Each structure stands twice: as structure tokens, then as C-alpha cells.
Amino acid sequence: MSELMNITLGELMEDLAKKYPDRCAVKYTDRDFCHTWKSFNEEIDRVAKGFVKMGIQKGDKVAIWATNVPEWMLTLYAAAKIGAILVTVNTAYKVFELEYLLRQSDSKALVMIDGFKDADYVAIVNELCPTLKNCAPGEYKDPKLPFLQHIVHVGKERVPGMYQWEDVKAMGEQVSDEEYQKAKEGLDCHDVINMQYTSGTTGFPKGVMLTHYNIINNGKCIGDGMAFTPDDKLCICVPFFHCFGLVLAMMACITHATTMVPIDAYSPVKVMNALQSERCTAVHGVPTMFIAMLEHPDFAKYDFSSLRTGIMAGSPCPVKVMQQVVDEMNMKDIVIVYGQTEASPGCTMTTTDDDIEHRVSTVGRSFPGVETKIVDPQTGEEVGPGVQGEFCARGYNIMKGYYKMEEATRQAIDKDGWLHTGDLATVDEKGYYKITGRIKDMIIRGGENIYPKEIEEFLYTHESVQDVQVIGVPSEQYGEEIMACVVLKEGAQVTEDELKAFVKSHMARHKVPKYIAFMDGFPMTASGKIQKFKLRDWAIEYLQLQHAASIETA
Questions:
Q1: DSSP for residue 20
Q2: Contact of 343 with 393, CB cutoff 8 Å
Q3: Which of 87, 136, 82, 140 is nearest to 111 (CA)?
Q4: Measured on CA atoms in the order 315, 316, 321, 325, is the torsion positive or negative?
Q5: Half-sphere exposure of residue 358, counting CA atoms within 13 Å on the CB side?
């Protein structure tokens, strides 16, 4: 990797407009939105001027609650140009979560679409802000949300109390170039530009503060690892609100002038259509997204010959699925990135130069400019190659901290600047890392430490198994027992006893699941992370283990 980039997001966008004015920056396949770098930058300026007219200034928080629509991208870059901080809102949120996020983040503006899946965003906002419909746009005031003033609606119908998206651009016309230039002055690449709220598998979500420097350089490194050029086209079907979409996708593209082909919300057919019609060279996804395409009845009808690379990440990547994507989707240069939101998010990565063995069985080596190590979770001492411990990272990519949560920040980042991820890993003599589980996912059965990922990887090799998650459930006798939650391939049939015998014939007796449940799918966050704690709660009810659970928590 070359020198780190000391540049803001706005400056980077202006550079692209000058250097590649006529090359395609972004193209949607399901709507009329296609821009060159020059015209995209001009559209961003129109929105940014509108934000200036609304009174949004450096350091103000602008929340965005939307799927991967064009307005999401425009809001991000327009806010960045004037030093406002984009607060990303999970598309699956309902009223309780939205209220928490808007209040905790001190958001001054909210940009939102009509809704997504079972969530009616307009109804939710009106429930949260009952007086909004009686206000003129931009004049909302409520002590419950003391910072919130502006709500911008992206949709066809005009909603009382809200600006329409087109209003923002119209207001921008009243802002002179001189006034706009003034708003852009004094920005620094080390300013916080984005607040990502962690999924919150424990406690309330925390606002991870990331800077221009964090996310641009992380994206640059990722694009380098994929050998991106202006001739590449990345299909983006992972959510923008998550670091996967924002950094691994968008930032990797804009640091290499790579064309972006976004999908507003994932569906296997939408993605496969875009890959074929746009001749995309890359696509990102979590394992379940790739599985859904590979298992789709029309998969064989699509032409994937243009594909070369992409990233599988977000949750542990089954080796078998990785191999299928290489063999059946032509993604010979597919890579894995490992990290977490607090690290912008990438820490380690396989690259196109790595052999297939390393690319399917490890999460690669440290990013240039990022230090990594494995420590004993009990003592904090660094351990040697092959010894499992907690993965820690330090470098340019580490967050500024959690917004207004100093104690939580101190727990995550130690006095020497090391981020403690809570992930278990090993490293080999050549510096390749393997993630072996979460510290809190580890199952302790009768004093034996059992790592779910090991059993999951093995069960994936069974011909009937499409997807599997292994969890620990309470046991009065052993403390915990193993449960495998299994999604079978369409039309496949296998019994619980057959799967247990399969594990028993290949793995130690204490690793054989006591319980197996066949399911249609798993509870997930909107960003594709499987929520094992919800699986565990369900299993306690399903298996009637409430008494054992009460002993465990006593």
C-alpha cells in the first residue's frame, strides 16, 4: 500500500471529477440514475448547498434511514463536503430503536424513505414525533429530541412537516458559490465524518466515531487488495448503512475510480440481473447472499463470466461456499476481509495474490499500516503462532471512540491504543489469521472449551446441509450442551440421528450436538449478521430448558 491519504471525502470526490470527468461513477439498473464522476460531483454539490441553506454546519449530525437508494449516497458525500457527520440508521429499526439513536446521536436532521419490509418509516416518525405534522418543514421542536429540526422525505408523496428531497436541491439554488466555499473551509481529514451504530448484541447500540482518514484509507487498502482499477465495476448489494457497504464497497470504489452498481435492497434475482447486464467484475456479500444465489433455481441461466473478484465477509465464511463461488461464479480473485466497525472496519485481508488455499481457509494478513496480535484473554500477554487467543489491532483504522460513551471506549481500546475485538483467532508463522469464534460464543461443556465454528465448518460438508449455526444451550449436568440449528437444501432429507452420527464419525465425542433443530432460516441483523443470542433464547423455549437457564444465571 502506498502512503496513507491525507484527504477529506469532499476533496477526494472533487479530484475524481477532475481526473475522470467522463467515466461512469454510479449506475443503478432499476431506475434512471446514472452519473459520470463529474456529474455525480455536481449533484452532490447541489444537495450540499441545500444542507447549507437548512443551517447544517460542520459537526452537525445528519441521520440517514434508507435502503441503498441514490439519495443515501448523495447525503453521505454532501454532508462530508460541509463537515457534517452522517449517522447511519439500520433499515430494520422500529420506533424504540430510532428514538434511542436520534437522541443518543444528537441528530439535527433525518433523511428517510417511505419504509422497508414491515417497517413504515413515515408512520414510525409520526408516532415518535406527534407534533411534526403541525410544523412547517425545518421547524420541528420537541424536548424529547432536542437537536432534531429537519426531516427530509425521499418519496413521491409530500408528507406534512417534512421537506421533500427535491426541496433540498431547490434551496441549494439560493446559496452562492462563495457561501458554499466558506462552508467547506477548515475541514480536516481527522474530523469525525461518520457514526455507525454497532448491532448491539449486548446492551444498547454504541455510536462508533469514524474519520475521513479512517474510512478512506481502509477503503483504499481494500481496493488495493482486490486490484481495483477504473475499469472495474462493483455490484453493491450489501447495506450502505453498514461498514460493508460504506467502506468495503463505496470507499474501495472511490479510491480507485471504480464504477458503483448499487442494488437498493438485496434479492438474488436483482443481483444476478445486474451482474449480467452491467458485466460487473466484482460483487460483495455475506455468505447467506452467495448461498441464496448459488441455490436459486435460475442460477445456471445467468452469465457470470465478467466476474473476477469480490468480498465474502460479515460472518464466518464456510470454506465450501467460498470454493463454490470460485468455481461456479468465476470469482477466481474473491477475497475475505476481517474486522469490525470499531476498526473502520478492516484489519486483515486475503488478496488476489494469495493462493486459493489461503483465500478459502484464512482471513489473510494484517493490512499495511495496521498492527495486529493475538493475546491470552486472561493475562493479556501475546501468544505464539497456532495458539488461540483474542484478536487485537492498532493503527490508523481504529475509531475515535464511542460517541458520549467514555467508559465503553476505555473497555474497547486499552491505554496503549490496542482495540480488543472479543474475537478468538490464531495466527500462523507466515502471519495468516484464522478467526475461530467469539469469546462469548465459546461453549464450555463440562469444562471442555468447544468452538462452534469448528463444528459448523464440518456440518457444512454434509450434502444435505445448506446453512448451519451451532450454539450453546443451558444444561444442569454439564453447564452447557451443543445445539446445531440446520437449514437443509431444498428437497434434502436427513434425520437428527444421521447428522449426529455424521459428526460422531469425524469429530471428538464431546463435540457431537446433543440437540439438532431443522429451521427455515436464522434471526439476522439487517446487515446480515446472524444473531446467535436470539437463536439461544428461542432454543431455551423450544427445548424447555428454562430451569437449567435459571441455574446458569443464578
A1: S
A2: yes
A3: 87
A4: positive
A5: 18
| Listed residue (53, 23, 52, 55) closest to 40, CA to CA | 23
Place of cell 481527522: 190
For 409-418, b/e burial (b = at least 16 CB within 10 A) is beebbeeeeb
Portion of the chain with pLDDT greater than 90, in percent: 82
- Cα–Cα distance measured from residue 368 to residue 358, given in angstroms and rounded to the nearest whole number: 18
**Which residues are within 8 A (CB) of 317 and not within 5 positions of it... i.e. 6 or more apart?**
287, 336
Measure the CA–CA gap between 158 and 164, rounded to whole angstroms: 6
Separation of alpha carbons 23 and 182, rounded Å: 29
DSSP string, 336-404: -EEE-GGGSSEEEE--TTS-HHHHHH---EEPTTEEEEEE-TTT--B--TT--EEEEEEETTS-SEETT
**How many CB atoms are located within 10 Å of the residue 476 CB?**
12
Closest by CA to 3, choosing from 189, 226, 184, is: 189
Nearest to 302 by CA among 312, 290, 294, 310: 294
Give 121-157 pLDDT, tens digit per residue: 999 999 999 999 999 999 999 999 999 999 999 999 9
What's the rounded Cα separation, in Å, for the pair 152 and 137?
8
266 contact partners, CB below 8 Å, separation of at least 6: 237, 238, 285, 289
Whole-Å CA distances, 423 to 106, 338, 412: 31, 11, 12
Detail the DSSP E strand segments found in 28-159.
34-36, 61-65, 85-88, 107-113, 115-116, 119-120, 150-154
What is the reported pLDDT for 146?
96
The predicted-structure confidence for 475-521, as pLDDT tens digits, reads as follows 888 889 999 999 999 999 999 999 999 998 887 788 899 999 999 99
- Counting Cβ atoms within 10 Å, is residue 79 exposed (0-12), middle (13-18) or buried (19+)? buried
C-alpha span between 39 and 55 (Å, rounded): 25
Cβ proximity of 216 and 206 under 8 Å: no
Tell whether omega for the bond before 160 is within 30 degrees of 0, i.e. cis. no
Question: Using CA atoms, how far apart are residues 311 and 334, in angstroms rounded to an integer?
Answer: 6
Rounded-to-integer distance, Cα 341 and Cα 352, Å: 24
For residues 73 and 111, what is the distance between their CA atoms, to the nearest angstrom?
Answer: 12
- What is the sign of the dihedral through the CA atoms of 62, 74, 5 and 366? positive
Report residue 469's pLDDT band, with 50, 70 and 90 as the boundaries: very high
Burial category of 406 from C-beta neighbours within 10 Å (exposed 0-12, middle 13-18, buried 19 and up): exposed
- Other residues' Cβ atoms within 10 Å of the Cβ of residue 94: 14
> Pick from 471, 211, 199: which is nearest to 340 by CA?
199
Tally the C-alpha atoms within 13 A of residue 183's C-alpha that lie toward its C-beta: 29
